[in-house]
C-alpha cells in the first residue's frame, strides 16, 4: 500500500513554451510540500535538465510571493527524450531510473501536451511516480476547461488590438494582427471577440480569402468603416479551394514543406500568415478601388504579437488557478495517485489520467463563440446598410 510518508523529496520541472502562471503552480506545490515536510528540488530546463541532472534546491523561504512572478524560475525547453527512439518502453525505463540519480521520490511535470506526453509514457511503460499539471497559453489540452496562462495571454492580445485601433483610425488602415496559438484558435477567438476585431481567422475553420476577407472588407468600407482590425491565428490557413484560386504568394506546397519542431508539430508560425494576407490584399486592385470609391486610400500592415503574449506577470485568474493546480498536484503525490494530472472542470479542481487529459482540444462548431464571431463580423456592416 502506498503511504504518503514514503515521499521525502520531489522533483518539479516546467517544459514547453513558458507562460504566465508557471511560478504560481510552483509556489502552490511548495506551500503544500512544506506543510507536509517534503523537500522540493527544481529540475532545470524541462526534460533537458532531467536528462542532464541539472537541478536547484527550492527553499520556500527564499521565494515569497513567487505566484505573482511571470515566466518560470526553473527555465524551460522543448526537449523530447522520446524523439527518434525505437522502443518507448526501454526509454521510459531508462528515464524512470533517473529518479534515483536525482534523489527524488516523485516528479511533478508542468507542461503542455508534449511535456505531459513524456510523463504519460514514463508512467505507462515504467510505472514512474509522475503527476502532471496542464499548462499552455493555447488552452488546447482536452482534459481541462482552462489551462493557466490562457487568460493572461488573451488579455494581452485583446489590449494590443484595442490599442491598435487608435493608430488604425488615424491612418485609416487595415491591421492584420497575428495571435499565437499553434494549432488551436482559442487565443485568437477569445481576444478577437473581446477586442471587437472585424474579422477573426482561426485554424479550426480554414478561411476563404475572397469570401471571409476581401468581400467583408468591401462591405465594411461601403458601410462607412474607414479602418479595420483582422485577428488571425498564427496557425490559421486558407481552405484548399481558396488557396488554389485566390493566393498568388503561397501554394499548398509552401504549407506542406514547413519545418517541424522536436515533437513533430509543423512550425506554422514560420508562414507569417498575417504578412501573407497583407501581401495578397496588396495585389487586389478591386479591393483598392472599392476603398477609393469610398474615399479611403487602401493601406494595410501586419503586426505579429508573438512572444509579447507570453510576457509579463500572470493575471489574478492565472495566479489563483496556478496555485490551485500546484496544491492539487502535490496532494496527488502525497496520496500516491500517479499517472494522473490535475484539471479544471467548471470551478472544481479534478483529477484525470494523463493519457486522457493530454489529448488535444479545439474549438468545435457547436461552440457559442463560433456563432458570436460570425454575428460580430456580419451584423456591424449589415446594420449600417440603408
Ligand atoms: O505552445 C505555446 C506557444 O506559445 C504557441 O502558441 C506558439 O506557437 C509556440 O508556443 C511558440 O513557441 P516558441 O516560444 O518555441 O517559439
Layout of helices and strands, plus pairs?
Elements: E1 9-14, H1 22-35, E2 39-43, H2 47-51, E3 55-58, H3 88-102, E4 106-111, H4 113-126, E5 130-134, H5 150-171, E6 174-179, H6 186-195, E7 199-201, H7 209-222, E8 228-233, H8 240-246, H9 252-256, H10 273-282, H11 285-293, E9 300-304, H12 316-335, E10 340-345, E11 348-353, H13 354-357, H14 368-384
Parallel strand pairs: 1-2, 1-4, 4-5, 5-10, 6-8, 6-9, 7-8
Antiparallel strand pairs: 2-3, 10-11
Bound molecules: 6-O-phosphono-beta-D-fructofuranose (F6P).
6-O-phosphono-beta-D-fructofuranose (F6P) binds next to loops.
What does this structure look like?
The longest helix has 22 residues, at 150-171. The strands form two sheets. A seven-stranded mixed β-sheet has the order 3-2-1-4-5-10-11, sandwiched between helices. It has helices at 22-35, 47-51, 88-102, 113-126, 150-171, 186-195, 209-222, 240-246, 252-256, 273-282, 285-293, 316-335, 354-357, 368-384; strands at residues 9-14, 39-43, 55-58, 106-111, 130-134, 174-179, 199-201, 228-233, 300-304, 340-345, 348-353. The mean pLDDT is 96. With 386 residues, it is of the alpha/beta class. It has two domains: 4-148 and 314-357, Rossmann fold; 153-310, Phosphofructokinase domain (Rossmann fold, 3-Layer(aba) Sandwich). 6-O-phosphono-beta-D-fructofuranose (F6P) binds at residues 16-17, 112, 136-138, 180-182, 234, 269, 310.
